[in-house]
Amino acid sequence: MIPKPPDPSTRSETFRRLLPHQDEIREALATTTAATIWQRLHDEEGVKVSLPSFYRYLSCFLFDVWKKPCIIIRRREPPPGEEAQIDFGYLGMWQDSLSGKRHKLWAFALILSFSRHMFVRVVTRMNQREWLTCHILAFDFFGGAPRRIVPDNLKTGVIKADLYDPKFNQGYEELAHHYDIIIDPARSGKPKDKARVERVIPYIRDSFWSGRDFTSLEEINKQALEWCLKIAGTRQHGTTRQQPLTMFRLAEEKQLKLLPAAPFEIATWHQAKVAHDCHIQVGGTLYSVPYRYIGKSVDVKLGTKVVEVYLDWELVKTHLRGAKGERTTDWNDYPPEKAAFFQRTPDWYRGRANLIGKSTRETVDALLGEHAFHHLRQCQGILRLAEKYGQERLDKACARANAFGDPAYRTVKTILERGLDEEPALFEPASPSGAFLRGPDELYCSIRS
Predict the structure, then answer these.
(1) Model confidence over 200-232: pLDDT tens digits?
(2) b/e map of 182-213 (b: 16 or more CB within 10 Å)?
(3) 83-255 architecture in CATH?
(4) If you average pLDDT over each of 6-20, 58-72, 123-137, 241-255, which comes out highest?
């Protein structure tokens, strides 16, 4: 209500000084603040009026243009089961009696807009997994899901706040699709968009948390559910003048959407860059990605059991989820020439040598029998000699090296380079238990003309 101007007989000296400028002040108020108008009148035109007196003058004589009455449009009450509002706020510090560590605690609160019945869960971190878990437990607590939820613009749920096209976290979108609900985030900096839950966190902090001791996080959440039913649910709500739990059971419980038969599998989404070693790091674990994606940023879906890697929404790699600190590598993700040595186990070398010949297998067995992983490169070198000299010559060279008790890569290579594999044997093969007595001259004898 706009106050009436005072009687002219009561007008003060301030009014008489400002009266000649009244039209000028009225026009300036449309674009300029009152403090700036006063400063210009005082400094530039020499009007000797204090700022508090100037404000009183505006309140009495120009109230209609200086302070327009604040008009509040009250939103309609949503029907039962239509809407739920969400808030996530700091609760306080808590010391774990078992470990002795102090933790910061946050409270997740989901309140049904019609009945004001609420669900509360206390967590030690505000990450994607906890955010999704809280929603799932809230829907289980109510026995159904509302058609629309109004969250705050937390990064765990809303990546980019926008009035017309907000961008949600992919895991949050999947949850909405699973429960067939709409996510309608509040506008940034507009707490009245979720007014029904805005004062809930201070109420939880005061009524449930303040002055109470708990031994474990499990006990805290168990007591929180009981508090929702016995204290918050049975109080007389200040707006509805009804008990939230009673309104929920009578009018809203049956109006919620039925929960899906299959449980929702929580999966969090992350972005990672493929390093030069063909691995990405997600959740403290390294996973290999095909080498052609080195240097690219990929989207990673981190599920309970499976990890999926996407590039432009195309699935490029799948792994079983590894433990934190582990390295999960598929050698097929590397170029063939890079991964060949690491893919080949001692058994692989034995099988490949067996295909070339008996003597080659004996050479490989001798090397791997002494120190398997130390001699893998020698076995690799021996088998590759077949590409240059052929399998038949390689097997003969291995037979000659075995006979002299020196099955090594350098020995076999020298025999093949000098053509000694074609020379007839001038000796009987040495006994496995006998000593090597012939000397290097007989081993590397020159080719007779």
Answers:
(1) 888 999 999 988 889 999 999 999 999 999 999
(2) ebebbeeeeeebbebbbebbeebeeebbeeee
(3) 2-Layer Sandwich (3.30)
(4) 241-255
Distances, alpha carbon 188 to alpha carbons 75, 150, 160, 181, 216, in Å: 18, 12, 10, 21, 35
Nearest to 182 by CA among 115, 257, 118: 257
Higher pLDDT, 352 or 344: 352
Distance between CA atoms of residues 327 and 324, nearest Å: 9
Q: How far apart are CA 152 and CA 155, in angstroms?
A: 9
> How many whole angstroms separate alpha carbon 247 and alpha carbon 127?
33
314: β partners:
311
Task: State residue 60's pLDDT score.
Answer: 79
Query: What is the rounded distance in angstroms from the CA atom of residue 431 to the CA atom of residue 403?
Result: 9
Question: Strand pairing of 314-320 and 285-288?
Answer: unpaired
List helix spans (H) across 13-158: 13-18, 22-28, 34-44, 51-61, 63-66, 128-142
Token pair 């808590």 is at which residue?
Answer: 94
Residue 287, strand partner residues:
280, 328
Spatial distance between the Cα atoms of 8 and 326, rounded to a whole number of angstroms: 86
Name the pLDDT band for 387 (thresholds 50, 70, 90). confident
DSSP for 209-247 reads ITT---S-HHHHHHHHHHHIIIIITTS--TTT-S-HHHH
The pTM is what? 0.58
pLDDT of residue 63: 67
- Are the beta carbons of 333 and 288 closer than 8 angstroms? yes
Please, which residues have CB within 8 angstroms of residue 175's CB and are 6 or more apart in sequence? Answer: 132, 135, 136, 264
The contacts of residue 384 (CB under 8 Å, 6+ apart) are none
Region 246-253: what's the mean pLDDT?
94
Percentage of the chain beyond pLDDT 70 is: 80
Supply φ then ψ for residue 269, to 5 degrees: -110, 140
Q: Which two tokens stand for residue 92?
A: 């306080």
